[in-house]
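Posting for a labmate who doesn't have an account.
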Amino acid sequence: MPAPKAERSMSRRVGNPHLHEPFNIKHTRPRIPLVAVTAGEPAGIGPDLCVALARRRLPARIVVVADRELLASRARLLGVALKMVPHPPGTRTAPRAGTLAVHHVPLARAVVPGRLDPANSAYVLRTLEAAADGCRDGAFDAMVTGPLQKSVINDAGIAFTGHTEYLAAHTGAGHVVMMLVGGGMRVALATTHLPLGEVARHITAQSLERTLRVLRRDLAERFAIPRPRILVAGLNPHAGEAGFLGREEADIISPLLARLRHEGFDVEGPLPADTLFNPRRLKGCDCVLAMYHDQGLPVLKYASFGAGVNVTLGLPIIRTSVDHGTALELAGSGRAGIGSLIEAIRLAAKLAARRGPRRSA
């Protein structure tokens, strides 16, 4: 299966074979994975995308975790004929084309597309918990999350910073890493959803070491890269300019990378972020570690928007996600692009097939 257009273009320049191996489940394990897909914010485009899945050929069996009537009403608004069947626990059969298997989680209040309602925030979190718990007990092989709106969850009085942090806490994961895949690149983050003014104090040797250990391990075990090569960005402009533009590189990042190289890690850095993302640097690179959200992700999303995938490393389950937001203005319009969700399902299915079947507890 060919990579998306943007990814094919970047892959020719970057030239990393690990990023673009063809997807073929029959070559890894004949059992087709069962993937739970959460619809995300009910007033956004997540339900639209889930409705569209019913008519797509996918490399996995899909169960949508959402409110049944929400999906039915969005299908009517979109003019899509949709049949839904309940998903009994333990069932792995795929419904017919045009039919969607649904794990029902009830809304608190009826939804108006494009209009946020804090009353439904707890519902959004219940869909995440249902999918994550299903992955942990073996009912699902992986989960894919639709976009949610962090602000409305906080408006409901629930402290929430994002999928990554919430799923880490819910599954008891010790340390997780947010990584996006697309445009011929993998970009992981040393910090995730923090105000820019708080980033520097969260760049510690201990945190960076834990991030790099999780990143190296999961690239090897989940992505089948025996000795991953990781490029590490500096925090400051020009990677600190020998200390004149900041001391984090000299005092924290460089000593840590030297120690890890002595252990056998293939890491390079700290590198100036403004020149890191070029074909010469990226050739043979398996992942870039950026220090903060908007240091690394704009480059990847420019190269892959609409086809990028967010994957959480360090969880005891497989979780991928779309790389975009709720697009409230597009909800119910029929103009929402499904490319990122399809790619997220493909990656989740590939990782699940490599991992093999889960056993129920």
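Reply:
Got it, the structure tokens are right above this. The domain at 176-314 is CATH 3.40.718.10 (Isopropylmalate Dehydrogenase).
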